[in-house]
Amino acid sequence: MELFKTIREMGHEQVAICSDKASDYCGIIAIHDTRLGPALGGTRFWNYDTEDEAIIDALRLARGMTYKSAVAGLNLGGGKSVILGDNKTKNREAIFRAHGRFVDTLGGRYITAEDVGTSPSDMDYVHMETKHVAGLASKSGDPSPVTAHGVFRAIEAAAKYRWGSSDLHGCTVSVQGCGHVGRNVAKELHAAGAKLIVTDIDPEKVRQVVADTGATAVAPDDIYSAKAHIFAPCALGGIINDETIPALTVEIVAGAANNQLLEERHGDALEARDILYAPDYVANAGGVINVYSELAGWDLERSFKKADEIFDTVLGVFELAKAEGIPTYRAADRVAERRLGDPKAVRASWGEWPPRNGNGS
Q1: One fold for both 3-62+79-127 and 144-338?
Q2: Which of 80, 195, 205, 306 is the catalytic position?
Q3: Which long-range contacts does 91-97 make (Cβ < 8 Å, 24+ apart)?
Q4: What number does CATH give the domain 3-62+79-127?
Q5: Which pLDDT belongs to residue 350?
Q6: N or C, which end of the chain has less CB nearby within 10 Å?
Q7: Which of 61, 38, 58 is nearest to 109 (CA)?
Q8: CB 168 within 8 A of CB 252
Q9: Do 150 and 116 touch, CB atoms closer than 8 A?
Q10: What is the per-residue pLDDT across 211-243, written as a single tens digit (0 to 9) for each?
Q11: Is 322 one of the annotated active-site residues of the chain?
Q12: What is the helix (H) or strand (E) element at residue 81, kind and residue range?
């Protein structure tokens, strides 16, 4: 990989490669953009096949956080961390305290939180070494319920745009991924009267969702061809690609996973098949809203109300795409880029962050 060429092309400000031999910690911290505020993004713990794969994942996720925060109307930039290794390890305190020390060296330019393979208790270890962390177990905690609510509202918005009504009663939704977010999405869809088809690589997670919602379970590879109205990807990214798009039978794709399109051209391919795509970083912004609420001192009720706004934001993206004759993923980028605007004009609002709440957290 030509690292400097890659980060220039993707617009990143900084990439930190971090190692701590004593704890066997290897991490990457990517800062994409800090024009609107400090870069916020979770820490992902994953067993990557190659170091290049880990770097690219961190870069893509960090850029997605910039656009996610901008579209959601938050005064934050975009960043992301990845820790390379087995996220089932018991050596969590040493690894996450090492991670916290590296986060702290960035002086508040980057604020971390939980992500795939990490938890609020892991963030408590990070907090032992730095104040630049959110999603703590004692504060906003697990962002999954707020994230899932925003995704549910995005699904409702997509239904309204495609069929003229946000009522999901009798609608069949295939949900890929039954983790914290996917399970909460499934519960909200079930409460709204939707019929569910679900899958996950972990059979126990599938069993729990089936027990909660009466969903039909299918094998992981069968979820793409499942006969449904809506496909909700709530696992890892890159699952909208050359192999899966021809198999889809749905009219809408709207879910919680980050970077659902393997490449941008796959957004064009969905458009060509007349499949309405709710851009992932618009639909799943509830997670960053939840973390922002901790930084800004909001209560949980206000976080859910802010996540409700995703309904109107998604509709706005669809209307812009129609007006300008562009795919929805490009329309979402334009909404974000308009808010980012002139760097000199928006940097003046940076001064309040990190917030001075007087408790040193």
Answers
A1: yes
A2: 80
A3: 91/23, 91/24, 92/121, 92/122, 92/125, 93/125, 94/22, 94/23, 94/24, 94/25, 95/23, 95/24, 95/25, 96/122, 96/123, 96/125, 96/126, 97/23, 97/125, 97/126, 97/128, 97/129
A4: 3.40.50.10860
A5: 45
A6: N
A7: 38
A8: no
A9: no
A10: 999 999 999 999 999 999 999 999 988 999 999
A11: no
A12: strand 77-84
Largest Cα separation within the chain, whole Å, is 58
User: For the structural domain made of 144-338, what CATH number should be given?
Assistant: 3.40.50.720
pTM of the predicted model, to two decimals?
A: 0.84
Residue 345's pLDDT is 53
Residue 32 near residue 78, CB atoms below 8 Å = yes
Tokens of 305: 């109300």
Residues of the chain with pLDDT under 50: 348-351, 353-354, 356, 358-361
Identify the pLDDT of residue 128. 97
State the pLDDT at residue 137: 75
Q: Which tokens go with 76? A: 């934050």
The domain ranges of the chain are 3-62+79-127, 144-338
CA separation for the pair 245, 307 (Å, rounded): 29
